[in-house]
Amino acid sequence: MRIPVVNSHGEDDCILVLEIGPSSGHVISRRSDRAVFLRQKDSSVELERDPVLALEYDKNQRRYEDEVQERSSMGDVDPEVMSRYKTELGTEASDELVLRSYGFLQDGHLTNAGVLLFSENPARFMPWARVRVIRLDGSKMETGRRLNIVKDRTFDGPLPKTIEGAKEFISSQLREFQYLGADGRFKVIPECPEFAWFEGLVNAVTHRDYAMSGDHIRVMMYDDRLEITSPGRLPNIVTLENMKFTRRSRNPTIARALVEFGWVRELSEGVQRIYDEMASFFLREPTFSEPNGASVRLTLENSATSRVLRRGDSIASDLGEDVVGALGEYERAALQYVYGRGRVTVKELAGHLGRSAKGGTRGAEVALEEGYPRLARHESDGPIPVL
Fold first, then answer.
1. What is the domain-level CATH number for residue 255?
2. 278 lies in a domain?
3. Nearest-CA neighbor of 385 among 343, 352, 323?
4. What is the DSSP letter of 243?
5. 90 lies in the same domain as 179
6. CA angle at residue 152 from 272 to 212, to 5 degrees?
């Protein structure tokens, strides 16, 4: 852009304005000495090596998982995990050939991804590459004499075994609630739907920032919620606002291997299904957060289930079995979603059901008007509350 001006000599002149956008996929360095600078207010601060590496990892210009672990060798490989991997691939090739062909072995040394996936003891190379699961008595962690940790287990083997071990332990610690159904029989519902917490666990193991050496994955099981905290911010273009629909893996090599093991889905359906599973169990929406700017936390609340089902207070008992039984598929789904969220707008409900705003709220309108008239607020822009 040229801006006409008159210079100090009284002559017509112009100012040339250049707009250069930030680089989202590459770290820019100075040609003369490869120095990298970060703008802070009105100054440019030269970065040291570690922050530069962090930038390169974040922009996928360099991948920590692909770097060679010089202290490793084929002797570190777990034969059981390797055998399972070859079975999944349908190959009888040698272990070394498979690892080299898939990029897990270079010049006789495992890459970081190879260490995490296939070594018998990844903690020997990366002590922070572990999952710690803590079960607490209460809704917050106490300290000192009031310490309320019930169970505390750490899993630090190769990732396939870490996932399996953590899954089994978490499952053993989850409670079940009984409630009296409309048919007069007692029914059992888990504290938290398995798909929701297990998908959260697998996502944390797959996408955490393994270059961060000061922290590990934590699963905290409170009376009213389950929290999964994974070191590292969301990768590059992924944000808290778009993560339901945007997929970018920080560790694509690890993700690919876990797909082949059968643990990970490459399509971005996992996060969306976590939302759907929580709604189907009459629970509040999951929440994702970045509590300290350097980690991602998934929180799955179970208070709605424990309070509602322990009282024997189900939707059917609230509205009447005849009302609920008369609803169609979409109407039931709409009512279920409203109960799980507590408050929803017409737009949110329509989006959840994949229907028009008019059709999307029909179930809630019918059920609430017939069975619980004081809840039937469904203005086009207003929320539908469940009191």
1. 3.30.565.60
2. yes
3. 343
4. T
5. no
6. 60
